[in-house]
């Protein structure tokens, strides 16, 4: 597709979520890449401008580089559907389900996709007894996280029962739903997916080796201490099995365009457990989708162009299927 065929393109970045700073970094990279290939691309921050201006100013496509709420949760996607402006990534329903880690788990479990055991606590509806049962139900250590945040914001690994209440309360301060999850000890990997439906394909798996096994917000974005191994170095056959599994998980959620699924591999059984999916993954200098794409021979600029070329509207996808 010729760069001129894209028309005037808005790179949506920033936004109102807790991941605003990361989104600005992602969006800046995407904007520079598209402009370098001759695309008429412009920055657009929905936290500072009304989305209606997209229509008024003649934008014909949107590259969504927003992360988290009000960008990755179906809200912006719904607004763009009403405006009739094609956008990158998953549609309204898939975005809304995928940002909610509990809803994602429910769909995956219904479709036979392995994910760690969990307990859901709701803000204002749990007491000391509920929190006190967690380690008996899920074992220790366990993971506590807000159900609808990304970039490891609000995530805690609880080693001692006495620290449980503080971890749950901290997560509840960020989200009404708190996900308490079985901890899987073993290899931490992630796998991006490109495309839609039967055309979806997995990129190379990346194995993540973080300092003391702590892949938190700081180690994700602001240090060079975390190792990202691609080729991943997993035993023969494991990478292919994980790729097949994540493509299935992506399809059953109805995702399109692109995504990235995080996986833990049990160190003793070698069974993979899917943790969550990102439907608008990071595109920063530390981000994993560009890293995996590069290993597959796709440059950052080509990746951005491919994602933009796949921009679509939900109702057009439905019409095409019909």
TrEMBL record:
GO terms for molecular function: ATP binding; D-alanine-D-alanine ligase activity; metal ion binding. Residues 105-309 form the ATP-grasp domain. Mg(2+) 1 binds at residues 262, 276. It comes from the Bacteria. Binds 2 magnesium or manganese ions per subunit. Gene3D superfamilies: 3.40.50.20, ATP-grasp fold, A domain, ATP-grasp fold, B domain. The keyword Manganese applies. NCBIfam families: D_ala_D_alaTIGR, PRK01372.1. Transmembrane segments: none annotated. Keywords: ATP-binding, Cell shape, Cell wall biogenesis/degradation, Cytoplasm, Ligase, Magnesium, Manganese, Metal-binding, Nucleotide-binding, Peptidoglycan synthesis. Its cofactor is Mg(2+); Mn(2+). Pathway: Cell wall biogenesis; peptidoglycan biosynthesis. This is D-alanine--D-alanine ligase. GO terms for biological process: cell wall organization; peptidoglycan biosynthetic process; regulation of cell shape. The keyword ATP-binding applies. It catalyses: 2 D-alanine + ATP = D-alanyl-D-alanine + ADP + phosphate + H(+).
């Amino acid at each position: 597709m010729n760069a001129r065929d894209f028309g005037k393109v808005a790179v949506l970045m920033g936004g109102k979520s807790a991941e605003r700073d990361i989104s600005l970094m992602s969006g800046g990279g995407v904007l520079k890449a598209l402009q370098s290939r001759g695309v008429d691309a412009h920055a657009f921050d929905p936290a500072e401008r009304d989305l209606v201006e997209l229509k008024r100013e003649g934008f014909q496509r949107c590259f969504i580089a927003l992360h988290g709420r009000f960008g990755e949760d179906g809200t912006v996607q719904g607004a763009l559907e009403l405006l009739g402006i094609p956008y990158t990534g998953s549609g309204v329903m898939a975005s809304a389900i995928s940002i909610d880690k509990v809803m994602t788990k429910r769909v995956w479990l219904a479709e036979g996709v392995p994910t760690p055991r969990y307990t859901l606590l709701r803000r204002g509806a749990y007491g000391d007894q509920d929190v006190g049962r967690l380690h008996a139900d899920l074992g220790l250590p366990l993971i506590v996280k807000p159900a609808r945040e990304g970039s490891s914001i609000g995530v805690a690994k609880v080693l001692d029962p006495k620290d449980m209440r503080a971890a749950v309360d901290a997560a509840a301060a960020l989200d009404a739903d708190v996900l308490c999850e079985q901890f899987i000890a073993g290899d931490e990997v992630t796998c991006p997916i490109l495309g839609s439906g039967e055309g979806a394909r997995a990129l190379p798996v990346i194995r993540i080796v973080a300092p003391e096994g702590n892949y938190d917000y700081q180690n994700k974005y602001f240090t060079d201490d975390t190792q990202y191994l691609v080729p991943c170095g997993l035993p023969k056959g494991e990478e292919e099995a994980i790729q097949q599994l994540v493509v299935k998980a992506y399809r059953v959620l109805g995702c399109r365009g692109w995504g990235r699924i995080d996986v833990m591999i049990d160190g003793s059984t070698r069974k993979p457990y899917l943790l969550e999916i990102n439907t608008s993954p990071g595109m920063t200098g530390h981000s994993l989708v560009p890293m995996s794409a590069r290993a597959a021979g796709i440059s950052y600029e080509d990746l951005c162009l491919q994602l933009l070329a796949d921009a679509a509207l939900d109702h057009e996808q439905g019409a095409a299927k019909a």
